[in-house]
Specification:
Elements lengths: L1 E5 L4 H12 L3 E6 L14 E4 L6 H9 L3 E4 L6 H6 L1 H22 L3 E7 L22 H20 L2 E7 L1 E3 L11 H10 L4 E4 L5 E2 L1 E3 H13 L4 E5 L5 E2 H12 L5 E4 L14 H7 L7 H22 L1
Parallel strand pairs: 1-2, 1-4, 2-3, 4-5, 5-6, 6-11, 7-10, 8-13
Antiparallel strand pairs: 9-12
Helix pairs in contact: 1-7, 2-4, 4-5, 6-10, 8-10
The protein binds nicotinamide-adenine-dinucleotide.
The site of nicotinamide-adenine-dinucleotide has 28 residues, from helix 1, helix 4, strand 5 and strand 7.
Length: 312
């Protein structure tokens, strides 16, 4: 297949690209390298340093004529969307409209889209399934949800098939611990630098943490399975920060220190996905346990930090 991946230099996108290439597909990456890194792009992928919002995107599509698009590029920070909602909307909504127009222009068959748990807002019932009310609490949640509607419109008007994947909390290798990266990448970074973990609240708050390779597999499955579907992608298991801390202690053999601070206002207490629809539609199953995923991540970064130390 000829697949174009937006955001293929980023955390999740680069894992998707690696897997597509391993399975023998031709891959084109479009990324503006704002949060992604060029060295994360698989050397066998064709790379265009192009912004989603720019008219040049159309030329890339005309040249490469992709059959499938996996759309990961986005403004990903909830805080940025609160401080500058217009910027968030310009990338996530207008940039995606530009992308969908380019898809229409060359007759793309299907778009697989990275949506988010942020569309739900504060969970009213757990586990969250796809019928749960959608009441996003940030511009980011609104922009991610808006695109789901545009996908429906382009399917209706032009027959472009889509599958939207609402990700839970994704973690793993290549996640950026700077900025507002996932809590696990921040923890890994602090543990390996011998710094204490900062926990806001009592540490009993829970999330559905899913390993990045499981998310990449879901994207590949979605290229062929599902049409016009919205699917939760998580593990269906909720884990507390205290459990994450205990696993870090076990994996590193270190007495990792934790500093408990005041709860952050507005933080969601518990969240976990019901993933039965994704299981059914995609024939997909998350395979990596939290312990195994944390172990892989810690081992990878331990090696990276060691190399950084010897390079200094
Ligand atoms: N990480 C998570 O836990 C999580 C959870 C839910 C949803 N998502 C979604 O998954 C997708 C991937 O997120 P990630 O965690 O890999 O983040 P990331 O920042 O590592 O990846 C995003 C990529 O998009 C690129 N990009 C950003 N703006 C662009 C633009 N205007 N034009 C072209 N490229 C642009 C960045 O350079 C980067 O390579 C995003 O759509 C995000 O909203 C992530």
């Amino acid at each position: 297949m000829n697949v174009l991946v937006t955001g293929g230099a980023g955390f999740i996108g680069s894992h998707i690209v690696d897997r597509l290439i391993a399975e023998g597909h031709r891959v084109v990456v479009v990324d503006n390298i704002s949060t992604g890194k060029e060295e994360q792009i698989h050397p066998d992928a064709v790379f265009y340093r192009t912004d989603l919002t720019r008219p040049e995107l159309r030329e890339v599509f005309e040249k490469e004529k992709p059959e499938f698009v996996i759309h990961q590029a986005a403004q990903i920070h909830v805080n940025t969307s609160v401080e500058d909602p217009a910027f968030d909307a310009s990338v996530n909504i207008l940039g995606t409209i530009n992308l969908l127009e380019a898809c229409r222009n060359v007759g793309v068959r299907k778009v697989v889209y990275a949506s988010s748990a942020a569309v739900y807002g504060n969970p009213e019932t757990l586990p969250l399934d796809e019928r749960h009310p959608v009441r996003p609490l940030s511009g980011y949640g609104v922009s991610k949800y808006t695109v789901e509607h545009y996908l429906n419109v382009y399917r209706h008007l032009y027959g472009i098939s889509f599958t939207a994947l609402r990700y839970a909390n994704v973690y793993g290798i290549r996640q950026d611990p700077r900025g507002e990266g996932g809590v696990i990448s921040i923890f890994v970074d602090r543990v390996l630098r011998g710094l204490p973990m900062t926990i806001h609240g009592d540490g009993e708050q829970t999330r559905d943490y899913i390993y990045v390779e499981d998310v990449a597999r879901a994207n590949l499955a979605a290229l062929e399975a599902g049409d016009g579907e919205i699917l939760n992608i998580g593990t269906g298991r909720q884990s507390s920060l205290n459990e994450v801390l205990r696993l870090f202690r076990e994996i590193t053999g270190q007495d990792v220190e934790a500093v408990y601070g005041p709860e952050r206002p507005g933080d969601i207490r518990h969240s976990v996905f019901d993933i039965s629809k994704a299981r059914r539609v995609l024939g997909w199953e998350p395979k990596v346990s939290l312990e195994e995923g944390l172990r892989k991540t810690v081992e990878y970064y331990r090696e990276q930090y060691r190399t950084m130390d010897t390079d200094r």
